Every structure is written in structure tokens, then in C-alpha cells.
Amino acid sequence: MKSSCASHSRFAFPLSGVMSGMMLPVLAFAQPAPAVSADSPAKSLGVVTVNSGQPTSLPTQIPTTIEGVTKEQIEQTINATDSEDALKYFPSLLVRKRYIGDYNHAILSSRASGTGNSARSMVYADGILLSNYLGNGIANGTNYAPRWGLVTPEEIERVDVLYGPFSAAYAGNSVGAVVDYVTRMPTKFEAHAKLSGFTQNFKLYGTDSNYGGSQASASLGNKNGDWSWFVNANRTRSSGQPLTFATTALSTNNAAGQQVVTGAVPGLTTKNVPWLVLGGNTQYQTTQDHAKLKVAYDFSPTVRASYTLGYWSTATDNSSQSYLRNTAGAAVYSGPVSIDGKAYTLAPTLFGVSRESLEHVMHGLSVKSNTRGVFDWEVAASLYNYQKDQIRASGTAQPASLNGGAGTLQDQGGTGWNTLAFKGIWRPDGVQGAHIADFGYQQDSYKLRILKSNIAGNYLSDSPGTVASDVGGRTQLRSIYGQDAWAFAPGWKTVLGARLENWRASSGFTNFGAGNANNTSYASRSENFVSPKAALSYQWSSDTVLKASTGRAVRFPTVGELYGATTPTGANPVQFINDPNLRPEKSWTTELTAEKDLGNGLLRVTFFTENTRDSLYSQQTFDPVANTNISRVQNVGRIQTNGLEVAYSGNDVFKKGLDFSGSVTYADSRIRENAGFVATPGDTVGKYQPRVPVWRATALVSYRFDPALTATFGARYSGNQFSSLDNSDVNGFTYMGTSKYFTTDVRVRYQVSRQWTAALGIDNLNNYKFWNFHPYPQRTLVAELKFDL
Fold first, then answer.
1. CA–CA separation, 41 vs 286, rounded Å?
2. Partners of residue 330 on adjacent β-strands
3. What are 31-83's pLDDT values in tens digits?
4. Rounded (5°) CA angle 191-193-195
């Protein structure tokens, strides 16, 4: 048996296996085993065994594909300014991070799920759910990315990623991937501080400016007898590039007395239709504060209680820049204008302005036993609350809107979710026995309310007025699960289990103001499903493991998808059309894996296939006449994905000090059945699933010149992809397009002394200009200085 982090690490290790043992999104049980670090999984017969006394969402037995990275590797090889950066070089993963500090659009995608499907992955931090299942992707004027801001890079002890829905202890949202952040819990006194700065020169359309910011972080921790504690504080100031753009279709009307302006940039839509780009919108200037307190108490050598309190807030100014100039050189934002002799009318909200003020709080509490005897148990609960969540948007034209005027206030205060879990593990034959059975009960509850009000006076300060839209509702998932890991013969192990789920949606409503004919209250719904799981692992030889796994996943509609209808009001308006009768999506996923130990490296080859019926898909289209984005969710009949993933990682490859990890993923993901359509019946059948590229790859080369100096080169590639169900968006390199990309990164880290470390890095070194609806950052310089006591 080897520690998974011992000699072969993909960024710590690419451990594969077949299906998981029981995965509870809270804590694993086992105490550290000899020769295995307290927070590292260990591998035997292709099954990862978690030996951890720290909070984690990992189960005790994980016979499925798993990849990981340690804090040391993050510090040495990754320009990590946000917690999601730790996932940058994982096989088949992409986080749609648009700028440093992106808190509302950084959605995680996986092998068979695109960046519009945030509800098809699970993200945890110390067993606390960070994934936001109030909605999916981008809908009803808000976003449902994981709450990455509740974890900072400096807190991370390690990150593990499990691929696929192969554990009965995880809900159907695990169909894509499960990400588990384990943060620091000290064993002695420690103190850390870090300062960093970043900048990019961004050139696109009529924008040519520098955008950047700074970050400061500090943490303290200690263990005193039965008590241990850790505190972390972080502040990020960031100025992002334009993320959306004011555009207009070409006019055929001749100008007649309108104000003459210049500066419009000719361009092409995603369908290669000519249009004009008039300016850059959604330029966020944000100040984000993070604070974390973790406390643990050992009631006895075998029973520990842990509590986590997390706080995150942001104050954000959202501004816009017009490229248009009149004959006097002044910026023009609204009204009738003449461009190249043609007449146009600029709406007052074409160049939007808004102010956001958000405060979110999370709590996590767990009590667990660690006897490693016949029976162990755990009770865990968490709460995530939108303590304050307000967006004030102008409804009038610049420059007057910068100082006030009419607008809207969107308020999500009181929105949030809570989880409760009871878990048991039974070892009838002891820790090394033939059977290890996991079982448990879980309850996850979600509450959403989005109240958007009109403000007739000063949108920056006045109280809300009449209702523009008021939507909300609740969902609840109650589950019981059981699963047995059985070593039934030498070299063989199987895992069999099932998950029974009851899903309920209730209290749904949409309200568009007093007396509106579209005001609706929705009847409650309740549905039951069973999701079986099965896996088999065989030790083919001393250095080769073969694995097979299969599992069903049921992903239920979110509150936002069911009830979140809104009208297009304010800046950057979005009309979301809901559907209270959406069906859950049902997926069957299968993996076949071979993993070989090459001595100084580990090679994994995985064939995967996924068949999803009633896939829940959000599609957003733009109405240029009304300047409105229209978004709706629908069930897509059947999507079939077949693919192959090859991953390798090795230390001291070719020469001592040279480490390499890389991956290549092929995924053929197609819509095979669909009664719905985009333009004409049948126009989506046979088309590629949106935002799932056929090819993608990663590579990371790191060289340790000596114990103090490390240099790293990384590369990431993604092939062509589409955003629309009918694949009609053939031009990915434009606003609202989704393009291929190839980017390179470098990082040099130097240990100045025992306590001081400096690092300098560049992301997107080759300055590749690529898109995922929004433009990604261009070449970005990052510098940091770190102190460790």
C-alpha cells in the first residue's frame, strides 16, 4: 500500500478507482493510519481509503476516479488568486472565471457538463456545501456559481476532485464532479501573511486600458490541549475588464438631423451577421472581504466536535464606457445619433450602471466518532444565508445616472440553504475486514426570493417602490442511502449501493405587481426516485489496476428554474421565463479505467459514457430591438456523451527535480432526442451539447533548481464549442460567443529565507483572446510576497 501523495502526484495524485464507497457531503471518519499523512487518501486495489481526522466531504472508501492537489503544489506551481484557481490544471475541468475575484459567474464544468450547468457539480469546503442549488447557470438576472469566496487560497490544505455519480452518498448533482476543499487546522501555533498585486492590459474593440488590483491575507492558528482553532482574513480589490458590450444591428434608415457620432466598432455576431459594438459594459470594481473562524474540540480521543463560521462581503461598482464621441469629443450615451450616415436610437439603459452590496454568512457544525472499531457515527449540519444581497441598477442614461435618478432595487435577503446529515459506518469484520458498510440520512433545503422593485427617485439611496417582479419558492431533498464495499476475493473488490430520494417543491410564486394578470402561485410537487450504484475493482498485477463503475444520478430542478420568472427592467435587462413543470434529469454514467504505476509516474486511461434524459438546459437569446436578453429553461430529450480521458503525472521525470503532469480528454457529446427546437423542428437533434468541447488538454511542467527556487510552465487547450442547442453560433470569437483557446502560464517561486517567500507569474502569457459569452482576461501579471511564522 502506498500513500497517494507519496511518490506519484498529479498535483498530488491522479488516483483512479471504480465507484466510490459511501460519500457523505460532510466528514470522513478514519483516524490517521501509520505512514499516511493525516489528511491524505491512501490507495489499495484501486480503491482510495480516506484516513483523515479533519473535516472533509470525502467518504471512507472511494473506488472511483479521483485527482488531487496539495497546498505545497498550489503555492509552487499555480498563480492562485482565488480558490477556484486550484482546479486550473485538473483533467476535463474548467471554471468560467472572467476576472480575478469573479464572484457571480465562475461556474464549474466537467467532462459532460458545460459552463451553463452549475447544478451538475458539487463543491464543498470542510464538509460545508458551497454549490448554489437555488438555480442553475445564469437565469432570472442572477447567477448560481459556487460560493468560491468562502475559501481563500491561503487556507487550502488540499483539494480533491471525484469524477462521476458513483456514490450513493451524494445527490444527483454529483453527475459531473465533486470538489472537496480541506482547509488548514493547525497542530501547533502558526501565523501567515500574504500580499499580492495583479495587472493586465486589455485591448478589445474600442477598449485599451489597464485593469488590476491587490490582495492581502492573514491567518493565525494553534492547538492547545483538546482545543484547536484557526482564523483567516482576506481582502481583494479588483478592477475587471468589460464583460458585456453595447451593440446594435445595422440600420437601413438614413440619418436626418441626428447627432453625428464616431467610434462605433464594426463586428460580427455569433452567426456572422454584421453589427456595431458601441461600448463596453459590466466593468466591475469590487472590494471583497472574507473572514473565517474554525474551532475544534476533542471530547475524548475518539469524539470530536468542529464548528466553522464564514463571512464574505462585496461592495461592487458596475460601470460602462461608451466608444461614441460627438464632434466636440464628448462621450455619447443615449438618444438619436447618426453613425456613418445611418440613424440609430440609443436606449437610456444601453450603458448600464449598478451598485451591489452583498453579505453572506455560513455556519458548519459536526460531531463525529473515530473509534475505527465496529461502528462509527457522525452528525453534521450547515447553513448558508444571504444576510444582505442588494443590486441597485440605474434606469436612466449616463452621465446623469452616475449620481442618481430612477432605477430598480433587486433584493435577495433571506435567501439561502441548510443541510443536515446523519452518517454511520459498520465494519462487522474490523477495519481490515471483507465488508465496510456505509449508510445515512440527508436533508437539504433551499429557499429563494428575488424581489425587484422600482425606484422613482434616487436608485442609489431611496427605499424600494412598486414591485417590478417578486419570485420565490422552496425545494427540499430528503435521502437515505446504503452501500457496502466488499473485498470478496484476493485482488477483487466490489461496491454495491443505492440512494432513495424524496424531492419536494413548494411555496412557488411569481408576482409582477398588484393586479398583474401574470401573477401566479404554484401547486406543490413531490417525486420519489431510486438511484442504484455498482463498481468492481481488480488488481491485474502488482502495478496495474482495472476498474469498472456505473451509477444513476437524478438532478432535480432548482427553485430558480421552476419559479424564477422576471421581467426585463433596469440595466442589462434579462427576461427569464420559468417552467414549474420541469422534469428531473436522469443520467446513467459508466466508467472503465486502467491505472498503471510506472515507477516514477502514474498513468490512467478512462473510458466514460453518459446517457442523460430530460436534461435541464438554460438557453439565453438576445433581442437587439428591445435590448433584452431572454432566458428560459427546458428539458432536452436525450444527450449522449462518449469519451476517453488520459492522465499522467510523475515526479523526477527524465531528471531529478523535473515534475510533469498532463491530460487529454476526448468527448463526443450530442443531442440524440429532443421534441423542442430553436428555430425549426428537429434543428437540435445530432448537434453538439453546448459548451462541451470535443478536445481539451492540460500540461504542467515544474522544475526545482534547488530547494529554494522552482519554475513552472503550464498550458491549457480547449477545442471548438457552441453555446446554442442548434449549434448556429458558428463565430465563437465575439461577444456572446464560446471559442476555442490555447493559453500558457508561467510562475517562478523563490524561498528568500525560512520565513519569506516571493513569487512572480504570468497567466495567459501568449495573450490569447478567447470567449465564453464574456471575454476572458488577457495577459495578466501576478506578484506576491508571503510570510510564514
1. 38
2. none
3. 222 233 444 555 455 556 555 555 566 666 666 788 899 999 999 999 999 99
4. 175
Give the span between the Cα atoms of 166 and 121, in whole angstroms. Answer: 13
Element at 77 (helix H, strand E): helix 71-77
Element (H, E) at 587: strand 585-597
CATH value at residue 429? 2.40.170.20
Domain that holds residue 197: 2-788
The pLDDT of residue 20 is 32
Q: Among 528, 536, 531, which Cα is nearest to 497's? A: 531
C-beta atoms surrounding 152 within 10 Å: 25
The conformational region for residue 686 under phi > 0 = left, psi -120 to 50 = alpha, else beta, is left
Report yes or no: 324 and 331 within 8 Å, Cβ to Cβ: yes
Residues with Cβ within 8 Å of residue 116, at least 6 apart in sequence? 107, 136, 137, 138, 617, 618, 690, 691, 723
Which residue carries 449501493 as its cell? Answer: 497
Which stretch of 140-154, 489-503, 734-748 has the lowest confidence by average pLDDT?
140-154
The answer for 233, left when phi > 0, alpha when psi is -120 to 50, beta otherwise, is: beta
The answer to whether the beta carbons of residues 97 and 106 sit under 8 Å apart is yes
Q: What count of other Cβ atoms lies within 10 Å of the Cβ of residue 769?
A: 16
Rg (CA), the chain: 26
CA dist., res. 419 & res. 439, Å (int)? 17
Query: Residue 649 has which C-alpha cell?
Result: 503525472
Please state the length of the chain.
789
Distance of CA 102 to the CA centre of its chain: 11
Number of domains in the chain: 1
**How deeply is 752 buried, as exposed, middle or buried, from its count of CB atoms within 10 A (0-12, 13-18, 19+)?**
exposed
C-alpha cell at 407: 432605477
pLDDT in the model for residue 62: 66
Task: For cell 455560513, name the residue.
Answer: 362
DSSP labels, 424-452: EEE-TT-TTSSEEEEEEEEEEEEEEEEEE
User: Smallest Cα–Cα separation from 317: which of 399, 238, 396?
Assistant: 238
Q: What is the pTM of this model?
A: 0.91
Which segments of 466-572 are extended strands (E)?
A: 467-489, 492-511, 520-521, 525-541, 544-555
